């Protein structure tokens, strides 16, 4: 899961994680977070996700971070936007409309950059990382988000011995272990998605759920 792994996924077009519509759980549950119009939302490991455009359409300012320049450029191209590009301590920052994306390593983002993020949306981010990186991700990156920040975290759960990640299975106990000290955690929904994912069934996976959590930074 080092940068070379993700760069080659983008270069070779192996981006099965990309969805051609906003994440349904985002659309269903985002308003329950009660974030104000105009507030800034952090989208870690954002790819070229349509979730960023959807959040902007809801009146948010969006801050994404993504390793792959190819993904960042594709996001703006596909929305007919011509971003400005400036230097940022963590990499280049692309800006257009209400969506800013830092092209760089999420772990290099400092607290100052994340200070005004009132919200965070995490889909395909925590679960894209292997266990040791998930611990760093929670204890370093999420730790830089400000008190009161509210988030929607989407995870996957499946018998981990039945398939190698990514995406990794991240059970509720691990979410509570990673985030429970600094974040209030509430399960919003746990949904059985095995029937909707024939590729997983073909690989021998016997159960698969997606879980949406509401997070609130203490
Ligand atoms: C599984 S994809 C999910 C992308 C997006 N969240 C979505 O739902 O389509 C994970 C993304 O994280 C990016 N990534 C991986 N490690 C990263 C890091 N340390 N910093 C920034 N981006 C990273 C990859 O290039 C890839 O685009």
From TrEMBL:
<keyword id="KW-0808">Transferase</keyword>
<keyword id="KW-0489">Methyltransferase</keyword>
<dbReference type="InterPro" id="IPR025835">
    <property type="entry name" value="Thiopurine_S-MeTrfase"/>
</dbReference>
<dbReference type="InterPro" id="IPR008854">
    <property type="entry name" value="TPMT"/>
</dbReference>
<comment type="similarity">
    <text>Belongs to the class I-like SAM-binding methyltransferase superfamily. TPMT family.</text>
</comment>
<protein>
    <recommendedName>
        <fullName>Thiopurine S-methyltransferase</fullName>
        <ecNumber>2.1.1.67</ecNumber>
    </recommendedName>
</protein>
<feature type="binding site">
    <location>
        <position position="45"/>
    </location>
    <ligand>
        <name>S-adenosyl-L-methionine</name>
    </ligand>
</feature>
<dbReference type="InterPro" id="IPR029063">
    <property type="entry name" value="SAM-dependent_MTases_sf"/>
</dbReference>
<keyword id="KW-0963">Cytoplasm</keyword>
<keyword id="KW-0949">S-adenosyl-L-methionine</keyword>
<feature type="binding site">
    <location>
        <position position="66"/>
    </location>
    <ligand>
        <name>S-adenosyl-L-methionine</name>
    </ligand>
</feature>
<feature type="binding site">
    <location>
        <position position="10"/>
    </location>
    <ligand>
        <name>S-adenosyl-L-methionine</name>
    </ligand>
</feature>
<feature type="binding site">
    <location>
        <position position="123"/>
    </location>
    <ligand>
        <name>S-adenosyl-L-methionine</name>
    </ligand>
</feature>
<dbReference type="Pfam" id="PF05724">
    <property type="entry name" value="TPMT"/>
</dbReference>
<dbReference type="InterPro" id="IPR022474">
    <property type="entry name" value="Thiopur_S-MeTfrase_Se/Te_detox"/>
</dbReference>
